[in-house]
């Protein structure tokens, strides 16, 4: 699957603020700010290390969240993805095999069915799964968790006085290989796409703000509210093959915005006050994402829907696609107060800006409230992966009165249009 940002990625390592919020959203402080969360995986290293059983986190803390239908929905999406032959091309990943990841999801559903208390959940997970932890940014397991979401922008299917900034369909002359990469190397740059006139007639939709159009062309999908009030969903169709360059880092480097103040809200404010600076900064990011109509999303990089609070985006070059994970960190409530989060979660998305073992994005949902929570999410924590022990689980071995019927959400094989 080609590299892309999550639906509304953490473009900068700070709080994301939705345009029009009641108050600016600032990143929550963490105890240390001298860590390099973007540190790439050292050569020859594997991103995950085994955890001794005595050091397992308390999985029982996730028992109440484990009863939510959203978790089962997310698991069913991962199972549907892993049942596709094309998913095998990304495995093995180090010592992790495709079959073991799939078996882990199926076994975990049995564990959920048979766990009638936090203590039983913790015991069953401990006995049936090996646990691996991300080495993090410091080889001590420290991971920075941020949030992302699906915004709703105002736009039009036709250019008008209020909507003059287009997003483009995939051009006919751009060919991709089986992995979605551009054949023959990078295609036109962002600047060439937006200024040459070559893309005329290939517009899919128009937005009312140039920087908002830039944000969407980085994130790769979203929802647009049309003048009649209806929602129009757009999805990822491909990219031009260039690497992603974050505009925020250059703004900080130039002293335009202080690092402590950096957020999407401050960037929006800056470019609204200095529209003449957009060419200088936006064109530094040569990467551009093309779009198509989409339904049933938002989709992650597996081509399956992502589920609020039960899907994460990680570096898919170093973490297993579709795998069952466990997160311990802090996330905000609707008032911005941080609460401890211990939850099972599925690794179902990736991001061009999430490219290290010390970074993880939690998907928060769609719209303004999800945007606020995403903006306030900025905390360290631990990222774990659960892999079923090699020995198959004997039938009925988990509990003497295990139910036969599994209350699993219907496994609908969602399809994103061909990329």
How does this model look, in words?
The longest helix is centred in the N-terminal third of the chain and has 17 residues, at 98-114. The protein has two domains: 48-148 and 300-388, Barwin-like endoglucanases, CATH 2.40.40; 149-293, Ribosomal Protein L25, Chain P. The strands form two sheets. Strands 3-13-10-12-11-14 form a six-stranded mixed β-barrel. Strands 5-6-4-7-8-9 form a six-stranded mixed β-sheet, with helices on one face. It has ten helices and 14 strands. 45% of the residues are buried. The protein is globular. By secondary structure, it is an alpha+beta fold.
- Written as H for each helix and E for each strand, in order along the chain, the element string is EHHHHEEEEHEHEEHHHEEEEEHE
Number of strands: 14
Q: Estimate the helix proportion, in percent.
A: 10-25%
Tell me what portion of residues adopts beta-strand conformation: 15-25%
Biggest beta-sheet profile? 6 strands, mixed, barrel
Looking at CATH, which topology of the largest domain would you report?
Barwin-like endoglucanases
Q: Please name the CATH architecture of the largest domain.
A: Beta Barrel
Unreliable spans are 1-32, 392-419
Number of domains: 2
List the keywords:
419 residues, alpha+beta, Barwin-like endoglucanases, Ribosomal Protein L25, Chain P, 2 domains, 6-stranded mixed barrel, 6-stranded mixed β-sheet, globular, disordered N terminus, disordered C terminus
Short summary:
The protein is 22% helix and 22% strand.
């Amino acid at each position: 699957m080609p590299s892309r940002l999550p639906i509304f990625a953490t473009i900068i390592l700070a709080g994301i603020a939705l345009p029009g919020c009641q108050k600016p959203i600032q990143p929550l402080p963490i105890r240390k700010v001298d860590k390099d969360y973007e540190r790439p995986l050292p050569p020859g290293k594997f991103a995950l290390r085994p955890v001794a059983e005595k050091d397992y986190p308390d999985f029982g803390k996730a028992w109440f969240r484990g009863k939510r239908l959203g978790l089962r929905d997310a698991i069913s999406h991962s199972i549907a993805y892993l049942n596709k032959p094309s998913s095998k091309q990304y495995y093995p990943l180090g010592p992790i095999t495709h079959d073991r990841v799939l078996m882990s999801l199926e076994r975990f559903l049995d564990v959920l069915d048979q766990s009638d208390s936090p203590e039983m959940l913790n015991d069953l997970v401990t006995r049936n799964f090996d646990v691996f932890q991300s080495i993090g940014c410091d080889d001590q397991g420290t991971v920075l968790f941020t949030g992302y979401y699906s915004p709703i922008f105002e736009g039009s299917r036709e250019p008008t006085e209020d909507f003059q900034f287009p997003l483009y369909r995939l051009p006919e002359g751009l060919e991709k290989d089986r992995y979605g990469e551009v054949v023959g190397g990078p295609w036109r740059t962002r600047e060439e796409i937006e200024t040459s006139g070559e893309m005329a007639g290939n517009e899919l939709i128009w937005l009312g703000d140039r920087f908002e159009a830039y944000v969407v062309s980085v994130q790769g999908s979203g929802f647009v509210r049309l003048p009649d009030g209806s929602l129009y969903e757009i999805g990822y169709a491909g990219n031009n093959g260039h690497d992603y360059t974050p505009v925020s880092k250059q703004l900080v480097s130039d002293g335009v915005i202080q690092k402590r103040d950096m957020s999407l809200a401050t960037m929006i404010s800056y470019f609204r006050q200095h529209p003449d600076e957009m060419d200088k900064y936006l064109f530094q990011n040569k990467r551009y994402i093309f779009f198509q109509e989409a339904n049933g999303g938002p989709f992650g990089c597996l081509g399956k829907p992502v589920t609020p609070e039960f899907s994460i985006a990680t570096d898919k070059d170093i973490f297993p696609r579709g795998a069952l994970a466990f997160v311990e960190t802090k996330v905000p409530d609707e008032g911005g107060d941080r609460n401890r989060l211990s939850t099972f979660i599925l690794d179902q998305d990736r991001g061009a800006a999430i490219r290290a073992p010390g970074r993880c994005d939690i998907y928060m949902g769609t719209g303004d409230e999800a945007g606020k929570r995403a903006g306030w999410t900025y905390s360290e924590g631990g990222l774990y992966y659960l892999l079923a022990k090699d020995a198959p689980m004997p039938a009925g071995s988990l509990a003497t009165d295990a139910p036969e019927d599994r209350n699993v959400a219907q496994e609908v094989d969602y399809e994103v249009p061909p990329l």
